[in-house]
Specification:
The chain is of the alpha/beta class and about 400 residues long. It is built from twelve helices and 15 strands. The longest helix is centred in the last third of the chain and has 24 residues. The model has no long low-confidence stretch (mean pLDDT about 95).
């Protein structure tokens, strides 16, 4: 493969200062040079591009590729897995075309879809998937409107979003089942949620003993744990147990922010789906809409607290329930800017910070740096000043 040379009015490396009149040279699937154009090595025979701005491909750190085209988990449970997978292929292509080249999927069909992408059967970003989301019975990963034995059958089938587990032995087995399927990360419900009917978003789910067992079992296989958390009790318990990421963080306060910094944890705030969910009143279940309205303002405040405190943040959207949203993932960048980040900080959250959500499984991605993966997107304007490009 011949080298590729990208000359840009502005190179945004993902981490560090932008380079005006910069050049990126790609050789053999990796970045070979990043720097000022007048310092770039000769590139005989290279394919050349001239762009306004170049930066690393975006990281979507809270994805669900599961064909959820209506915001209702009961409707999803009645749908054919074939239909869901077919829908997911369009979600993947749109996400890639929207500039997302890497996705941490925290519940969905990402593990088998990853294989189809790698084989070239479908188009999509590189996927680092969790498989099923671990939840206690009655928790956020349960479907409360159905008999529990039916939900347990869905869980045992291996292609449902959730895996019910209660007590340390069942939690260990659930982790091992996800590892057996090829999971790159383990996702858990450490608090109640919005799209589940009977649990409260503030309440802690899983006991401290169960959380510790899950994190320790994942760590033995060099996997980290992503913890769905709205309420502070779940946030604190997950962090004390060693969870690497907090998803949503709606009731995060200064104390929780300080513990995140102390434990080197990452917040994936998913502000986009909070904003979009408020516009789904006519399609979302009434119980879910009430929960969303109750926490939306608190979530906005929590994100501002985290940014001001210096918590590490990675971009994630939690897109579901509306197929038109796939491909607009980068709108989350604008939400981060509106919450107090500088445009450069928001770009870092959307690129360089992404791999940190995977711990030891992280690829050399998210940065334009020598030796990193050749993973570049381009703009026809400056995305640090023309903020309307995001989304």
């Amino acid at each position: 493969m011949s080298p590729i040379r990208i000359d840009a009015e502005l190179v945004i490396p993902g981490s560090g200062d932008p380079i005006e009149k910069g050049t990126v040279v790609i050789e053999g699937g990796a970045v070979g040079f990043v720097g000022a154009a007048d310092e770039a090595p000769p590139s005989p025979g290279a394919t050349r591009f001239q762009v306004a701005a170049a930066m690393p491909g975006l990281w979507e750190c809270h994805a669900h590729f599961a064909g959820i085209w209506v915001p209702d988990m009961e409707a999803l449970a009645r749908e054919s897995i074939v239909v869901l997978a077919a829908r997911a292929t369009t979600e993947l292509k749109a996400t890639l075309n929207g500039g997302v080249t890497s996705a941490r999927e925290v519940g969905g069909l990402g593990i088998p879809l990853r294989r189809a992408i790698e084989e070239g059967a479908i188009e999509g970003p590189a996927i680092y998937a969790a498989g099923a989301v671990l939840s206690p019975t009655g928790g956020h990963g349960d479907v409360h409107g159905f008999p529990v034995d039916f939900v347990e059958q869905l869980s045992a089938r291996g292609d449902w979003l959730g895996a019910l587990c209660d007590g340390v032995p069942e939690c260990l087995k659930a982790v091992r089942r996800q590892l057996r399927s090829g999971a790159s990360v383990i996702k858990i419900c450490a608090s109640g949620g919005v799209m589940s009917e009977l649990d409260h978003p503030i309440h802690q789910q899983f006991s401290d003993e169960e959380l510790a067992a899950i994190v320790q079992e994942a760590a033995r296989a060099e996997r980290v744990v992503a913890a769905h958390c709205h309420g502070k009790p779940g946030i604190m318990a997950a962090l004390r147990a060693g969870a690497k990421t907090i998803e949503h963080g709606s009731y995060l306060d200064q104390e929780a922010a300080e513990l995140m910094i102390e434990t080197d944890a990452v917040l994936v705030p998913t502000r986009m789906i909070i904003d979009e969910g408020l516009a789904m009143k006519d399609t979302i279940p009434a119980y879910a809409y009430r929960k969303l309205v109750a926490l939306a303002d608190q979530h906005a405040e929590a994100l501002q607290i985290a940014i001001a405190a210096g918590v590490t943040i990675a971009m994630g959207t939690d897109i579901f329930g509306n197929p038109a949203l796939f491909g607009q993932n980068s709108r989350e960048v604008r939400h981060l800017i509106d919450a107090g980040m500088t445009p450069l900080q928001a770009v870092e959250a959307a690129t360089a910070n992404g791999p940190s959500t995977l711990g030891p499984q992280a690829p050399r991605s998210g940065r334009l740096q020598s030796g990193y993966d050749a993973d570049v997107i381009a703009f026809d304007t400056n995305p640090l000043t023309e903020l309307d490009v995001w989304g």
